[in-house]
Structures are given as structure tokens and as C-alpha cells.
Amino acid sequence: MEQVEPLLRMEGITKTFPGAIALQDASLTVGRAEVHALVGQNGAGKSTLIKILTGAYRRDGGTIIFDGRQVDFHSPQQAQANGVSTIYQEVNLVPFRSVSENIFMGREPRRYGLIDRRRMNADSAALLARFRIHIDVTQPLLTFNVATQQMVAVARAVSFQSKLVVMDEPTSSLDEREVATLFEVIRQLKSEGVSVIFVSHRLDELYAVCDRVTIMRDGRTVESRPMSEITKLELVASMLGKELGEVRRSGATGFGEGVHHAEEQLLDARDLQRDRVLQGASLSVRAGEIVGLAGLLGSGRTETARAVFGADPVQAGEVLMDGKTVRFKSPRDAIRAGLGFCTEDRKTEGIIPHMSVRENLTLALLPTLTRYGIVQRDKQQVIVDNFIKRLGIKTSGPDQKIRELSGGNQQKVLLARWLCMNPRLLILDEPTRGIDVGAKGEIQSLINELADQGLGVLMISSEIEELTEGSDRIVVLRDGKTVAELPHEEVTQSAIMDAMAHGPENPAEAGSVAVAGGGAGG
Amino acid sequence: MATVPASSSAPRVRQATNLARAASLLQRQGVLIALALLILFGALRYEGFLSPYNISTVLRYNSMFGLIALGMTFVIMTGGIDLSVGSVAALASVVAALLSPYGMLVGVLVPVLVGMLVGFTNGWIITRLNILPFIVTLAMLLAARGLALIFANNTSVGVSYETDFTYFGKGDFFGVPIPALVLFAAFILGSVMLSFTRFGRHVLAVGGNEEASRLMGLPVERTKIAVYTLSGALAGLAGVILAAQFGAGQPTEGLGWELSSIASVVVGGTLLTGGMGSVGATLAGVLLLGLIFNILNFENGRGSISLSAYWQSVIRGSFLLVVVLLQNRLTRRDQRS
Amino acid sequence: MANADTTVPRPTRRIVMPSWVGGVGQTYGALIALLLLILFNLIFTSNFVTEQTLYVNLTQVATVVIVATGMTLVIATGGIDLSVGSLMAIAGALAPIIFLSKIPPFSDPFVGNVLAFIIPVLVAGVFGLFNGTLVTRFKIQPIIATLVLFIAGRGIAQVITNGNLQAFTNPGFQYIGLGRPLGIPLQVILMLAIVALFAWIMRVTIFGRYVLAVGGNESAARLAGVPVSWVKLAVYGISGLLSGIAGLIVIARNASSDANLVGLDMELDAIAAVAVGGTPLTGGRATVVGTLIGALIIQLIRYTLLVHGVPDAAARVVKAAIILLAVYVQRQRRS
User: Cα distance from C108 to chain A (closest Cα, Å)?
Assistant: First the structure.
């Protein structure tokens, strides 16, 4: 039985953060010379599980058996020394230093106390040649494209005699050809007997290179299957925790029944393009309707919203408001035109932490509350009191600093920041992420109510119920491209998941899937 | 919907490589080219510009700024800053003058040790108490100046001419001024250290990406403490030269040296954000800014114009501006591609 | 995210302060330290409670406080301004040229003096805008952007005056440094007025909120429609204007303008006052009144040490320790 013992067996892993359970009885088993996909929604626990494996976090319970021994790594360095290397989403190397230095950083070969550059360069070149990469290793890392940088990270990882290489979303900034090169390297590793844990949100990639998949949801391991025995649709359904063909309105959210009375066209974004993140995103919103924007992570949902709002420049495509072409050079322009944008990441793009609830709430509205440059406190107070009451914001008072509020209440303040503007169109990026159930329902019914009053809403969400129950119409993005638009009648969970998983009929896509199928089969 | 032309998804040709190479070449060699041009200009235009006397005068005087800028280069390469160098040089000059009766060895070594101690304190506070380098070294700027005034009793301290101490500042060795020799030795050592020792590589790694360095298991804190200690030691050495060259320990000297040495480092192409830089280019930066003064003197000597010495600050400042704008363009283009 | 919804809103228990005190709430520590210093002097320093002691200390800090007020705003946006001392020198160099000029309209004593106030301050303001342009338009780090004028600015002042000391006697102009309406030195009145004005601006105007929003979370501010570049440009411009005023006070007090010395080391003194006053260098929070208190603390420590026979040199060391301690304590309290 020695032969078939898996390389890694993590069992019953639990991890609790103050106030939240991140992992509960999670498990992961990776065989030898196996490329193992680890998938799950945001917050499913993938990263936590990986960090526990690599020693970045300590587990609260469970066992890890690696290469036949029970292990307990205290730091990434220790994990590395024992054969577990990690490659991060952002290339975690030093950009200005040469390729060879990056590979040998911290253990440079020395002669007479000085670094032996000749040997370092020769060894690096030899190492990279294993992956058929022939570059000038004396050049700074930043002179190479991201894919090559990733390869260097892989080479560094492998040079530690790793038995297991963990790749956390390594492809998120690579283009197709670069991804293909990375896959070559992964196959090379596999042929040398090294196992790989591969995290990605791009389903095609999983099918192209992985042997097995482990699916996580809500801090638990849901299932683990050979890649060839699971269809894309099943995979998506399992990640989202939905049975296929489930009824479309279950009433589990704060959204009401029925359709909103959609009025005239407000916003029409056509074929937005930006670098690799947006490759033809299109959508439209009418007054008084909620349009859901669906897609897996990395599909360009937030990027689409930012482009519409003037926060990022676009290279091609146009945005129309009321049928007229508009060009928002900054969010300020968009706000003047009646748009509001509640960001996904409250902490980095929403709250001004050290300012009070009052100031955070009225930040966008301030110009209209001001006379001769002076903020009219009484007017401001009326609005703030009104919204604190209307949205049920739990705060000790408008002077409390916003960072002292709970996540749900912070989110309500940020919603109020836009609502007090009387916007015509509100973009909500994950409006209920990280918020307790009570506040969640309240926010959802509020959104519903606003749409009833004629507000156009573009809602980005990873929660399938929120989309199916809340939206009048759903636009599905995949790889930065609009791949489906589901009218109200066709909005079902499986329809959304199908579009997220497969996208449109497209010869190129079909081709890559076919290749993937072949790879997985062989 | 979704009628994206096939070409847009085709892999784009990346021009990053060539552009970045050109940018880094210009950043690294630009200052050398400018220095060469300035020297050529001076040599053709002024008689005596390349005379041994002029060369040794320029080197003797600028050696102090060179040493300080060398230490600053290391600090800046880790992404930090050291504002205390001018005061530390003043403190060291006082200590050197006080110890000059005991001869050159004591008069040189002890002030350097004092500088090291001050630098180590900077590094220790920055890493252990986790306070911004800007604030810590600002406080040290005040403290070291205070100590210098205390030791000097608020006045300049004459050095002893009884011993060989002043030789360190005024002497020549085979016709080369001693301070210039010290300067070149320090830069050669610094260059070797940066390129061929783990410490040097770690300095650049820490400044380039501190988080990655930590993940790679580099001794981040130790490296930081070391660069501040080095910077203090070199500032101490500059102080010794100050005392030996001008015959007095001067507690009020060195005002604004920290900022001018930062300017030399920036002109030399070292990024203030850390992670990239060259010791040689810093030397070129120091000489470039120093030569501006020299050339201004020659130009006035010719009598064709009469620009006061005060123009040198204006010219230096403009130079810094041009360099910074140029660097900015290059790095931004680099990021875009 | 982990503890997103576990925070219980803190009950309100705030000590009510008169509104003019402004941002003192966040600088309790500094205020208490100042009061303790005063208490110490009341007990141990003879002749402490005299008008002379008061005005000696206040006139000592007047220019630092004026400059540090602008610095507070710059730092609140997450920037820094190293050029303040050089801009003081430029303003100081220009003023005598204007009021000593024989060319109309400057030759008229009244017009000459008025323009000698206005033009130098405006010029310093324009240089401040130049700093701001480098920071916003060219995205150069504030420390380097303002280093340019730190170096070139003093040179410009020296070139204007050819490095000569310009001595003068001009009671009309010197009133700004020597005048004592109601027995109070005008520079002290000016200092208090500027602190009050900017404390008020930070407290009640939209500009004040924008400054804090930009420093607190630049990308969030931008997404909420705050004109980030404009705000940054403005704070550097203000810092320049205030430096210009401080430069005029210095030369009026000295009855001479020495481009080599006016404003020397001012950037460091101002930053120290800001830091001790409780404005973190990381931006997003600011207290102009705190900066006043910070400058007073530094001055009073120096004064206390001096009158008790501690030499000025040692006082500098103590000052350094105080700055570090203040920043360290504030850092601890925040985290």
C-alpha cells in the first residue's frame, strides 16, 4: 500500500477567526504526481486552507500528513524547506533584481565570501531550461512579461526540491499564450513526479490541466472527484451549493415577488474594452429595474462597473446615458450625471475610516450642502438623521467614527452616501457581502423598494439567490465579455450557472474545451 | 452581444522588454553621460579645469558629500531615509577634533564608531518600535546636533596640529588627496558589497518588495538596522574629513546636507521608493552637482558672465527637477506597457 | 471580514468641548502635556507668570506655528512639504526690494508697503502651487517634489539679493514683526488668527472635509467625487502662502533680510510641531489646534530647560526625545 499513499492528506481541518469560522472539518487529499484543482466561491475557505498548509496560519484542529509524515509548518519558509512551495497570485518576487538573483535570493552560492554570480547564473539558466525557457537570467525580472515572471517563481519553487507546488490563481494576469506556457511547465512538473495544487476561477483552465478537483463551500470540503467525471455545470452548481433545476424564487432573500415596472433606457454600455480584463462587456439598465450582473470571480464584473463609472479608462467601447454618448473622465463626472457606485471592498474603496458617520454619509452630497464653501450643518444633520432612521443604521450617533461600526452598518452608511444624492442609477457591487443575515435582508428589501420608486439598479453579486430573486434581468459576464443576457422569464439558477460555466457558442472556446477534454482524458 | 473581433483576444505583442531596458539604461547611464559631457565642456572651455590642482580640490571638498550620499544610497535602496546624516557628520567632526591630540588612528576610528552607534540607534528604533524612518531620523537630526554642541561647548573646536590627524584631510598620497582616496575606497567597497554580497542583494530585495523578501526568508529587520548603521558610520567618516580638512570640529556645520545628499542619490537614478539603484551612479550624481559649483567659478573667472555662486543652488534644483521628471516619464511608460 | 458584525457600537461618552477648541479631542495627550509643563513652571520657575514670559514664548513660536499650520494641511492629505523654509527666504528677499524700490508705484511709501506684503506672499503661494503640480500632475512623491524647491528656492532668494544682507528701517512694513496693537505682538495675533482660521476651515468647510477624505482614503474619496488633485494642489498652495507670511515676519523682526538664514531648518521644526501635536504623518487626520499645542510644547520645554540652567544644546536632545515619545505614544494608542 506504500505505493498508493497520497502525497498530502489534510483531514478535519478547522480554523476559527475571532467571530467567524473560516474552516470547519475541511479536507484535501492530493496524490503523487497529480495536478489538483481547488475551487470555491470567495470566502469558501480555499485561501485559508492553503495558508494552513503552507504555515502562514496555524490551524485550530485537524491533521496534515505530508509525504508519509505528520507535519505542522510554522512558516512558509519551513514549509518550503520540507518540500511545499507556494506561488502567489501576484508575483511575489523582487521586480528590479535579476532573474537569477530572484531564484537564489536568500541562499546565493558563494565563493570566498562573495556571491558566485557565474554559478548562480548558470544554475538558473539550467533550471529554467528544464521548462524550455531560455532567457537572459542576468536581466532584471521586470523586463520580462508576467508569464515569464511566473515561470521564474515556479523555477524558484522547484529549486527547493519541492514535492508539492501550490499555485494560488497563477493565471489571473496571464494571456492565453502565457497560460499555455505555464501549463507546459505544470505538465513538466507532473512528469517529474511533483504534485501541484492549482487554484483558478477559470473553468477551462481546470479542465485543461487538472486531474482531480476538490470543491469547497462555506468552509467545508463539499466533494472531491476526478476532473473527467464532473461536468462544468455540475462544478458550478457544486461551488454555489445549488441543485440543478431548482425553482427560481424561493423567497430566501429580502427581495419581494414580482417584476418592477421598467421605464425608459437609462444607461447603455457597449462593448467596453480594457487590457485583458474587459473584452467586450455590454449591458443596459432602464429606470426602475434591477439588472443583475453575474459571473465567476475574475469575469470582469467590478471592472465593468468601474469603467461605466469613469473610475478606470477604457480603450474602446462607449457608454450612453439617456441615449446620448457620455465620456466620464472621473467619478465626479459620473456622479454629476446621476450615478452612484457602492464598491465591493468597503475598507479600501468605501469608507474614510477616521471620519464620522455624518461625514462619510454626506461625502458625495457635500457640494450641494455647501454655501460659500461652508457646510451647512443643519441641512447636513437633517439628511444624516433621516438616513440613520430610514436605513436603521445602528450607531451611537452621527459623530461616531465609521470604522467603529459593524460591517452591515458601514454598508448602510455607504448606501446612504449614494441614496441621499437621489441618484438615477445606482451600481451596487456585492451589496450584502460580509454582512449578517438581518442587515442583509433589510438592504435587499431597500434595494427593491428603491427600484419600485424608479431608481435604476445594476447589482453585482456572487450569491445566486440574490441574483435570481432580486433581478429583473441578468447579464452574465465571462472572461471580461458579456456572454448572455437573461430576460426575466428566463432567469433561473441553472440558466445563470450554465452561462457562467460555458458562455456562448464560440468556436474558439469550444476548441479549448476539446483540448481540455483530451488532456483530462489522457 | 459579444461580437468581439477575434484579433482582440490574440496575444498582444509585448514591448515591455525593450522599453524597460532602454529606461533602465537611461536611468543608470544617464547621469554618467551627463557627467562626461559636463567634464568635456569644462575641459574644452576652461584652462586649468583638468589641472591636478583643480581635480584634487573638487575631490577633496566633495569627498564628504560623496561619503554621506553613499550611506544614503543604501538607506534609500531599502525604501527608507536618513535625515540625521548632516548632524552626525557635525557630531563626528567635534569628536574627531577633541580626540585629534591622540593621533590619526583614534581621531578617525572613534568618531566613525560614534556615527555607527547613532545609526544603529536609528535602525533599532525604526525596526523595533516601528516608527517611520522620516520621524526617527528627524529626531536624531536634532539630538545629534545637540550632542555636537554639548561636546563642543557651543563653539568650533580647533584640531591639534601636533599629531598627524590633519593629514587625513589635507594630506596627499602619491599626489592624490587622502579624502579622495577614502572616497574611492568607500565607493569600491560599497559597490562590491552591493553587487557581490548577500547583504547587498538583501538591501535591494527588501526595498524592492519587503513582503516578498520576508516570504523568501530574508532577514528584513537586520538588513534595515545594518543600512542605518552603515549610513551613520559614513556620516561619521565625513565628519572626520570635515574636521581634518578645515582644522576644526564644527558643531553647526552640515545643515541641509541630508537633503542635498538625497538629491545626489536621486540624480544618480536611485529610486526613492527603494529596490533599485547604483552606488557608482550616486558618485556621479555627487560629482555632477559638485562640478556645477566648480564650473560656475571658472565661468566667472573668464569674466564673460558674472553669475554669483548662489546660482548653483538654482541650477542644482533645476537639475533635480529635470531628472525627476525624466525618470517619472520613463517609469510611467514602463508601467503602462 | 472575520469580525465584521461583532463590533458593538460604542456608547456615546464624549466630553463636550466648546466648538472653538476644534480638533483638540484627538490631541488630549498633547494638551495634557502642555498643561503639565505650565503647571511645572508655575511651581518651579520664578517670574513665570509675567506678560514678558508669555510674549517671549509666543513670539518664538509664531512663525513656526504659521508654517506648521500649512504643513498640517499638507500632511493631512498624506504629503509633506520640505520647501517651506526656502519659500520663506524668497518672500523675505522680495519684500525689501519692493519697498526700497524707487520705481513707481513702489516708490510711494504706502503702496510700496502694501505691495511688499502682497507680492511676496503671492509669489510664495505660486511656488507652492508648483509643488502641488509636481505632486498631482506629474505624480512625483511629495518628498522629492518639494526637495526641488528646498534646494532651488533658497538659491533663488540668494540670487535675488545676490547673497547680501538687506538691512532696512521701515516702521510701516516692520509693524508685522514689531507692532503691538493693544500691547499684544502683532505676530502673535496673526498666528492665533491663522490657527483659528484654519481650524475653522478644517471644521466647517467642504474643503476641510475633502482634505481629510483625500488623506484618509484617496481612492474612496475619488470614487465619491472628491476632486483629489484640486485639493492637493490647494494645500501646497496654502502651505506656500503661509510660508510667505512667516518669511515677512522674520525679516520685519530682524530689520534685515538674509537669504542664507531666513527659514533655515523651518521644514523640520514645522514637521516636529505637527507630529507632536497629534497629526499622524500618514494622513487622514489633522488638528491645527494640536499643531499649535505641539509647537508650544516644544518651545516651552526648551524655555523650561533654559531658565533652569540646562544649555540649549542639551535642550535639543530632549526635544528629539519628546518628538519620538509623542509619535510612539500616539502610534500605540491608535493600534
Answer: 36
Residues contacting A496, CB < 8 A, separation 6+: A294, A464, A467, A468, A474, A476, A486
Q: Taking CB atoms and an 8 Å cutoff, what residues of chain B touch C150?
A: 256, 259, 317
Q: Please tell me the pTM assigned to this model.
A: 0.81
What DSSP element (H or E) covers C253? helix C228-254
Q: Touching check for B129 and chain A: CB below 8 Å? A: no
From chain C, the residues in CB contact with A22 under 8 A are 2
Cβ-contact A169, A40 below 8 angstroms: no
Q: Which of B9, B16, B198 lies nearest to residue A145, judging by beta carbons?
A: B16
Q: How far is CA C302 from CA A403, B245, C41, in A?
A: 38, 34, 12
Is-contact A321 A448, C-beta < 8 A? no
Q: Which residues pair with A64 in a beta bridge?
A: A10
Q: Shortest CA distance to C185 belongs to which of C67, C56, C294, C293?
A: C56
Taking the CA atoms of residue A498, residue A503, residue A509 and residue A513 in that order, the dihedral angle to the nearest 10 degrees is -10
- The answer to whether ipTM exceeds 0.85 is no
Cβ contact A244:A494 at 8 Å: yes
CA C307 to chain centre: 26
More confident residue, B331 or B180: B180
Q: Determine, for residues B146 and C314 on separate chains, whether the beta-carbon distance falls below 8 Å.
A: yes
* Banded model confidence at residue B49, pLDDT cuts 50, 70, 90: confident
Predicted confidence (pLDDT) per residue in C192-234, tens digit: 999 999 999 999 999 999 999 999 999 999 999 999 999 999 9
- Identify which of C327, C222, C322, C270 has the alpha carbon closest to the alpha carbon of residue C75: C270
**Cβ(B200)–Cβ(B50) below 8 Å:** no
Neighbouring CB atoms inside 10 A of C49's CB total 11
For residue A277, the number of C-alpha atoms closer than 13 Å in the C-beta half-sphere is 17
Which residues of B fall within a CB distance of 8 Å from A481?
2, 4
Q: What does the block give as the cell for B205?
A: 530585495
Q: Which three cell numbers stand for residue B284?
A: 556621479
The pLDDT of residue B147 is 92
